[in-house]
Amino acid sequence: MLGNLRSALPEPLQDYLASARELAHRQTETPVSAFSTTLHAFDNLLTGGLQRGQMTELIGERSSGRFSTVLATLAAATAAGEAAALVDLGDSLDPRLAAAAGIDLERLLWARPCHLKQALVSAEMLLTGGFPMVILDLGTPPIPGGRGVEAAWLRLARATQSHDAVLLVSSPYRVSGTAATGVVKATRGRPRWYGHGSAPRLLLGLSSRLTLEKLRHYQGERSETLRLISLEAAVFRSSAAVEPCSNESHIAPHLQASKPPRLQTSTAPLLHCSTAPSPPCPA
After folding, report:
1. Between the N and C ends of the chain, which has fewer C-beta atoms within 10 Å?
2. How far is CA 169 from the centre of its chain?
3. Rounded distance, CA 227 to CA 235, Å?
């Protein structure tokens, strides 16, 4: 049937007629460039990093390392000279700590919507406006506006594809339906403490378990461990002439450097959210 239709068309137009299976095969063969977040655990799950032209969803509860991964991704993008945009529905960004984590604030656009609908519209405007990287962070539950309709997420995915941009959706639970090409779940791990005996303990960081739940054209489940290091602990350890206790043998050696470390390929900064009040949203 398809062959008869092709033969009836002029020769220059025959290549434009294809079946759904042929289109899917062509899409699979098309090479997709990836943006490295500099976090090996996250990049390995996504076969190289965040895929350009595709939506990736990162889900996880509080203290799972989800927002720390967002900050590390923004730091990698701005350090590479790219402009990036953060649509911060959860109002979680602390600019001072973000700068300490390596984010170039001069290259970051920070949008603070009050509702999910506003957040989706903002993300789409930024993608169509030419931003090569847009991160949509939905904060902690309950999300203002619910999960949104799937049509809105599909529209956002199409905007990402048509502009060959990177879109990362950070959410406490699945919201994008079938629109996301890849889905990674972050699970809270155990905290790591510094100190021994009856002395007060200092939180060194947390470990998070990243699990690949979905990746288009890939089958199977994989997991990686992501280490989160407290910036305050890094500063303390760099200035204190003390030995680590026995349960810290797995801490990265760069914590004992002569100055606070920059972002490493296998670690992300563990940052605290600002407690400063934000402007009230309109009713």
Report:
1. C
2. 7
3. 17
Residue 189 lies in a domain: yes
> Residue 23: which domain range?
1-30
Question: Tens digits of per-residue pLDDT, 60-82?
Answer: 999 899 999 999 999 999 999 99
- Tell me, what's the pLDDT at 59? 98
Give the mean pLDDT of the chain: 80
pTM, two decimals, is 0.74
- Asked if residue 245 is part of any domain, the answer here is no
Quick one: 10 and 38 in the same domain? no
